[in-house]
Amino acid sequence: MKKWDIPKKKTHGHERKLEKRREQSTKQHGSAAQKEEAAFGGVEVSDRYIYAGSDDYKRALDREKKMKERLKAKKANRLQELEAKERDKQSNMLKSLGLSNIKPGQKISIAPRNDP
User: Fold this and answer.
1) pTM listed for this prediction
2) At residue 6, does pLDDT exceed 60?
3) What is the dihedral of CA 69, 74, 78, 79, to 10 degrees?
4) 7 Cβ contact partners less than 8 Å away, ≥ 6 residues apart
5) 74 alpha-carbon distance from chain centroid
6) Sign of CA dihedral 26, 30, 32, 33
7) For 111, phi and psi rounded to 5 degrees?
8) Kindly report the CA angle at 24 between 20 and 27, in degrees rounded to 5?
9) 91: which residues sit within 8 A by CB, 6+ positions away?
10) pLDDT tens-digit profile of 42-75?
């Protein structure tokens, strides 16, 4: 085989199948890589620009901490609301059954039936 001879592509078989997959992959993903490169202009970005200064990092941490605290307070508030709603449901059910004077943990006694 001489240097200028180009080997022929296989037209069938497993190797050809893999080769087609690689070609298709470069077609699909290659355009995305080109778009990404064009969007950034192929410019190298410094770490300082990406990660910003230490002040920005501290502010971001504080902002995240405040957000977590707000979410925690919101969850606690929602939990209290749901617990109050559940207590109301329970008391309403006991009232409808005529057992509103029962204390928590107290046993319920049922009167014997008087069938004629």
Assistant:
1) 0.41
2) yes
3) 0
4) 1
5) 19
6) positive
7) -70, 145
8) 140
9) 100
10) 666 677 767 666 677 788 889 999 999 999 999 9
Distance CA 82, CA 64 (A): 27
User: Letter for the amino acid at 92?
Assistant: N
DSSP per residue, 49-91: HHH--HHHHHHHHHHHHHHHHHHHHHHHHHHHHHHHHHHHHHH
Q: Which residues of 12-29 are buried (b: 16+ CB within 10 A; e: fewer)?
A: eeeeeeeeeeeeeeeeee
Q: Which residue has the tokens 């997959």?
A: 21
Alpha-carbon span 81 to 73, nearest angstrom: 12
**Cα torsion through 89, 90, 93, 95, rounded to 10:** -110
How far is Cα of residue 45 from the mean position of the Cα atoms in its chain? Answer: 30
